[in-house]
UniProtKB/TrEMBL annotation:
Gene3D superfamilies: 3.40.50.880. Pfam families: DJ-1_PfpI. CDD domains: GATase1_PfpI_2. It comes from the Bacteria. This is DJ-1/PfpI family protein. Residues 56-217 form the DJ-1/PfpI domain. Residues 1-21 form the signal peptide. GO terms for biological process: regulation of DNA-templated transcription. Transmembrane segments: none annotated. The keyword Signal applies. It comes from Xanthobacter autotrophicus. Keywords: Signal.
Length: 282
């Protein structure tokens, strides 16, 4: 297997954690039999076999998506040694996020691997509604999502999954303001920063994508590996304010933000219903 530069870096940086890896190593391997940590970053001999994978991961990107919805889990999931990650768009033209960041797709809908281990869909606002109206996007999601090992989203990306018919009968979450709309797609709105129902994993608003990605790293490797990735990222959030949920934010702040969503939610409900109905025949 060809290793990327990041695989090699992770091999060297995670190597010192091997002393704690015994409980997670192959059952036939005893702590005493563990080899010494690798002396060089390129030496993979000391790594537990299950730390190396071959996952195929695809992130959908589309005009005006929310960058952090994608970038947060992208950082975590590209920490999976051996995995191949694609940024998928309708064409290979640069894609501009809702804050003006520009992304270069690595593959188109046609080029994307047919069978994915992880399909991840970020959210947005007006860009997400536009994506719901695009039959090519819905067709792509419906096709790849029907076979992917894990079908996932962050924030209002779950509305896109729902519109493509991929959440019927599944518990799912979204941004807190949009979560009730999931009923339009036959999903079961469920509160939570990360909600998992069988092979559907949905994250709440924006920053929840970091938690979702790290949790999936732990599932696909083991706790020691995931803790190493967390430590490398120095992911130990201590926000300067405690207003990250409607329950914890001051009432006047919650009311202000809710008011900003009124038009979007009405349009999302109408657009979502229409997209969900069309997707059945795509």
């Amino acid at each position: 297997m060809t290793l990327t530069r990041r695989d090699i870096a992770l091999a060297g940086l995670l190597g010192p954690l091997l002393a704690q890896a015994a409980p997670f190593a192959a059952k036939a391997q005893t702590p005493a039999a563990l080899p010494e940590p690798p002396a060089a970053a390129h030496d993979m001999s000391a790594m537990p076999a299950h730390w190396m994978g071959s996952e195929k991961i695809a992130f959908l990107i589309y005009p005006q998506f929310t960058a952090l919805d994608m970038v947060g889990p992208h950082y975590m999931l590209t920490s999976l040694m051996g995995a191949t990650t694609h940024a998928i768009a309708k064409t290979k033209a640069p894609v501009t996020s809702d804050t003006g960041l520009v992304f270069t797709p690595s593959a188109t809908f046609e080029d994307c691997p047919a069978d994915l281990d992880i399909l991840c869909v970020p959210g947005g606002s007006m860009g997400t509604l536009a994506a719901m109206r695009d039959d090519d996007t819905l067709r792509f999601l419906k096709d790849r999502g029907s076979r992917a090992k894990y079908v996932t989203s962050v924030c209002t990306g779950s509305l896109l999954l729902g519109a493509a018919g991929l959440l019927q009968g599944y518990k799912a979450t979204s941004h807190w303001a949009a979560r009730p709309l999931l009923t339009e797609f036959g999903a079961i709105p469920t509160a939570g920063r990360v909600v998992r129902d069988r092979n559907r994993i949905t994250g709440g608003g924006v920053t929840a994508g970091i938690d979702f990605g790290l949790a999936l790293v732990g599932s696909l490797r083991d706790r020691t590996y995931a803790e190493g990735v967390q430590l490398l990222a120095e992911y130990a959030p201590e926000p300067p304010f405690d207003a990250g949920t409607p329950q914890r934010a001051p009432a006047e702040v919650t009311a202000l933000i809710e008011g900003m969503f009124t038009t979007f939610l009405a349009e999302a409900a109408e657009t979502g219903r229409a997209a969900f109905a069309r997707a059945g025949s795509l």
